[in-house]
Design a protein that fits this description.
Blueprint lengths: L1 E3 L1 H10 L4 E4 L2 E4 L5 E6 L4 H15 L6 E7 L9 H10 L11 E4 L4 H13 L3 E5 L5 E5 L4 E6 L2 H13 L4 E2 L2
Antiparallel strand pairs: 1-6, 2-3, 4-9, 4-10, 5-6, 5-7, 7-8, 8-9
Helix pairs in contact: 2-4, 2-5
């Protein structure tokens, strides 16, 4: 597991077929070559954890490497607990603050720890991307309580949509 700076995360994304553009003080995925669907993130914490598990398994079916990139936090400070994140990051050897190294590159052996970071991002309603190494699919979670799924193929979209239908998520218009 390796924590990455914004330039390092941008480079990993580019090398795997994802293009990010500056968007204010953040970065935003250029989704023009993807099929995109948007869903509401459930309010219930248990349903959010189930959603995270489903997305995690969809983006990483062979438990290969992937990138988790937190692009915004602190929008809802009453719903987050930064000491928890600092402690979790420190437990994995990262002393830099989130702003200096907001992305996490991980391998199959890092699965449980990396999933913990993803799940906390969802529970805290942080903006984050989970990107597949194939460049075929990704997920964006927003502090505005929606998620977007990105896929390059109809088959990939169908698989993700089926998983999300089982969770009975509300489909939103983009």
């Amino acid at each position: 597991m390796r924590f990455l700076t914004v330039p390092e995360a941008t480079e990993w994304a580019r090398a795997h077929g994802f293009t990010f553009q500056p968007f204010g003080t953040q970065s935003r995925l250029d989704s023009s070559s993807f099929q995109v669907r948007r869903y509401a993130i459930p309010e219930d914490a248990g349903r959010r954890v189930a959603l995270c598990r489903s997305l995690w398994e969809s983006i990483r079916p062979e438990r290969s490497e992937a990138l988790l990139w937190v692009t915004e936090w602190g929008v809802w400070p009453s719903g987050e607990h930064m000491p928890l994140i600092r402690t979790l990051r420190a437990a994995h050897g990262e002393s830099r603050p989130l702003i200096d190294a907001p992305a996490l590159h991980f391998e199959a052996s890092d699965d449980d720890a990396a999933f913990s970071f993803f799940m906390l991002s969802a529970l805290f309603l942080w903006d984050c991307y989970l990107l597949a190494p194939s460049g075929e699919s990704g997920v964006f979670l927003s502090h505005d309580e929606f998620l977007r799924i990105f896929t390059r193929s109809h088959g990939g979209l169908f698989g993700l949509v089926r998983r999300l239908e089982m969770l009975e998520l509300e489909t939103l218009q983009d």
